[in-house]
């Protein structure tokens, strides 16, 4: 009786739905079978084929240094590397000119402006995910070489992890997940950590990120989290970021040449109301920091040069630049007080903030309203080749990165250390895996502490 009822209920399914379901199952079985056949045939025929790997980063490839390093390292070890991701900043020449590396750009989904209501983001999100699924699925199945394994950056987890798991299952490929952070914690900054969507995102990330042949983490704290709380399958290894070899301190001649080519004085004039009171105009033989009296004489620092402080950012919610703005104002007020007494003179301070991102316009407006006399804050955009040159020319670096999970580290600090730059970094959990207070940098909690550290840096530099 039960079997006849089950048969009746099954036959009540519309024919169109049965047809669609049959086609889907047939397609999956056919694709899976063809993939297994092709893989086995390739292994059986000794064809001296190259080792292939696909790197997936659902972000700007030009601004993904860790994945760039993976690609270059693999290419230098005779792997053929396909890199899949978004266009944006131009990747370094070492990546573009390497014959073992091929970049496959996928189209950006349209991004809603930050000022749109949260409800619109929620309504648009499913369409954005479907767009990303279609493009990523097509690229991984049909555009890249058949890889030995796929290395995927996480986050973003949605829809990346699901798609790469599915493609790896179809093509019989091993998967490696490179955990930069946890995607659900970043989503929680926008929607709140108690949001049902954030809880779903955490579930999705755990389910689809758990199964892989290996997991790479950026910190020991993240390693422990995956090991004890996520029950991941496969080997877990902590791989700390390291600066590339071309990140180094510049000599005075290189600094002079760099600032002749990148005239930051023009940026100061464009973004400051009273730039003439902040710095003296330069000649054709001088730059923001340096002067060269003749082509034959060596370059030297200008006597009136400002202290150059650098920070880079993607202008997102996990970096609170109001701390820097408050510290700059406190520092300016202190200078004003000291200068009025005539007890001591100090050099001016120039903060250069590089990068683009959703909150940039908000902070640019806040900066424009600051009543500063001895301090200036400018924003600019640098190529991947010029960024290390700016770091190698600066006096001090600042990091305002606060990890959304408390388990990732700011790559900018690694880059600054590579350029021999002292660093002031805002405190968060696990920062001590990279910055050791008063040993290789300074750690601050708020704007007041940062202002004091900046003032102390003047005394050391003077």
Number-wise, the strands total 15
Query: What is the helix fraction of residues, given as a range?
Result: 40-55%
Count of alpha and pi helical runs: 16
Q: Which whole number gives the mean pLDDT?
A: 83
Termini, distance in Å?
Answer: 94 Å
Approximate strand percentage: 15-25%
Rounded to the nearest angstrom, the radius of gyration is 26 Å
Tell me about the largest β-sheet.
7 strands, parallel
Query: What structural class do the secondary elements suggest?
Result: alpha/beta
Strand order of the largest sheet: 3-2-1-4-5-6-7
Spatial shape = globular
Uncertain regions: pLDDT < 50 for 5+ in a row? Answer: 1-11, 37-48
What attributes characterize this protein structure?
single chain; 462 residues; alpha/beta; seven-stranded parallel β-sheet; six-stranded parallel β-sheet; 16 helices; 15 strands; 18% strand; globular; disordered N terminus
């Amino acid at each position: 009786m039960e079997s006849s009822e089950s048969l009746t209920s099954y036959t009540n399914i519309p024919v169109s739905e049965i047809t669609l379901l049959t086609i889907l199952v047939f397609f999956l079985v056919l694709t899976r079978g063809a993939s297994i056949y092709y893989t086995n045939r390739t292994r059986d025929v000794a064809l001296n084929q190259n080792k292939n790997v696909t790197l997936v980063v659902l972000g700007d490839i030009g601004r993904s240094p860790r994945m760039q390093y993976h690609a270059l390292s693999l290419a230098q070890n005779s792997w053929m590397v396909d890199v899949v991701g978004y266009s944006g900043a131009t990747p370094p020449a070492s990546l573009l000119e390497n014959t073992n590396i091929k970049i496959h750009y996928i189209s950006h989904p349209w991004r809603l402006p930050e000022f749109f209501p949260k409800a619109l983001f929620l309504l648009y999100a499913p369409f954005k995910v479907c767009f990303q699924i279609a493009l990523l699925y097509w690229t991984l199945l049909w555009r890249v070489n058949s890889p030995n394994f796929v290395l995927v950056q996480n986050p973003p987890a949605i829809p990346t992890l699901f798609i790469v798991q599915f493609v790896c299952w179809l093509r019989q490929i091993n998967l490696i997940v490179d955990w930069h952070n946890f995607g659900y914690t970043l989503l929680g900054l926008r929607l709140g950590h108690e949001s049902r969507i954030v809880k779903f995102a955490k579930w999705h990330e755990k389910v689809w990120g758990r199964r892989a042949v290996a997991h790479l983490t950026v910190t020991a704290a993240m390693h422990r989290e995956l090991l004890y709380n996520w029950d991941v399958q496969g080997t877990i290894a902590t791989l700390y970021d390291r600066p590339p070899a071309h990140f180094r301190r510049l000599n005075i001649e290189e600094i002079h040449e760099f600032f002749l080519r990148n005239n930051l004085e023009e940026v100061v004039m464009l973004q400051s109301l009273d730039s003439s009171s902040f710095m003296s105009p330069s000649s054709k033989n001088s730059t923001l920091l340096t002067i060269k009296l003749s082509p034959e004489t060596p370059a030297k620092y200008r006597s009136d040069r400002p202290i150059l402080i650098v920070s880079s950012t993607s202008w997102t919610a996990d970096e609170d630049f109001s701390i820097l703005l408050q510290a700059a104002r406190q520092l300016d007020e202190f200078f004003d007080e000291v200068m009025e007494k005539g007890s001591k003179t100090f050099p001016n301070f120039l903060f250069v903030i590089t990068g683009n991102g959703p909150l940039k316009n908000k902070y640019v407006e806040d900066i424009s309203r600051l009543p500063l006399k001895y301090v200036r804050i400018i924003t600019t955009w640098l190529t991947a080749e010029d960024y290390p040159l700016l770091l190698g020319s600066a006096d001090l670096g600042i990091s305002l990165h606060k990890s959304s999970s408390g388990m990732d580290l700011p790559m900018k600090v690694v880059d600054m250390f590579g350029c021999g730059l002292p660093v002031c970094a805002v405190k968060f959990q696990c920062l001590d895996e990279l910055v050791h207070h008063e040993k290789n940098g300074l750690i601050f909690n708020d704007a007041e502490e940062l202002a004091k550290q900046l003032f102390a840096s003047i005394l050391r530099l003077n």
